[in-house]
Amino acid sequence: MYQVSNGIGFYVLATYFLAAIESKFLRAIPYEIELIPQEEYRSKFCYSVAECRASYPRAMDRGNDFFKYLLSRVVVSSVGGIPKYNVDEDTVIRYMWDVHQAAVDVGKSQLSDVSFYSSETERDFFMDFLLAVEFSVATLYRPYINSTAEFLVGFPHRPLTDQDRNVLASDVTVREKAFMSSVKFFSRTNEATGGLFLTVWKIAMTSEAGRAAGRFLIKRLLLIPSL
Q1: I need a labelling partner for 77 at 20 to 30 A (CA). Which of 87, 146, 164, 166 fits?
Q2: b/e map of 89-111 (b: 16 or more CB within 10 Å)?
Q3: pTM greater than 0.85 (yes/no)
Q4: What's the average model confidence in pLDDT over 10-20?
Q5: Counting runs of H as helices and runs of E as strands, what totals does the chain give?
Q6: Is the dihedral of CA 164, 156, 97, 58 positive or negative?
């Protein structure tokens, strides 16, 4: 699990970093950047602006949209040398999540095989979790430290085994069991409706009232019980 989540995380971080270079958001880099590859996974990732642009143009486009939006803003202050822009919070969060989801979609397409996971049960949970995140993204869930830590408080503390598929081991906490049941609810309901659940959810999240209700439901399903 941790190897694969790091792999998905690589796509997200690499997309942000390389798109920041390509969009000229990072202006003081006078040479070409290439990330150091892990040779055993060389074909699964991209390591430079040119490679990622050629292989995953949609993800790079979303990254460019995000940084070009920031470049279009005016710096109004600086905290510890970090500029603060006159951005609209919802707009910048929407751009940020668009990059995140595009990069996750790439990672899922490359790392869906069970051989990348500790077990089939682990792979299924991870895919359920990523779908639950997509539901959360539609609400413009705030990606701040406290809210992110709160969101992940029930995440399993260890990789799952196939013995956990039907009966979870005694070391899995009540909070973790509730979290896994919640992410499975999103996945199974969406599957049963042929993807209509997510489609209707995204439509409902186009209004501020809908997003507020959506964030409330996410908290109820994923963050309770809080033990």
Answers
A1: 146
A2: eeeebbbbbbbbbbbbbbbeebb
A3: no
A4: 92
A5: 9, 2
A6: negative
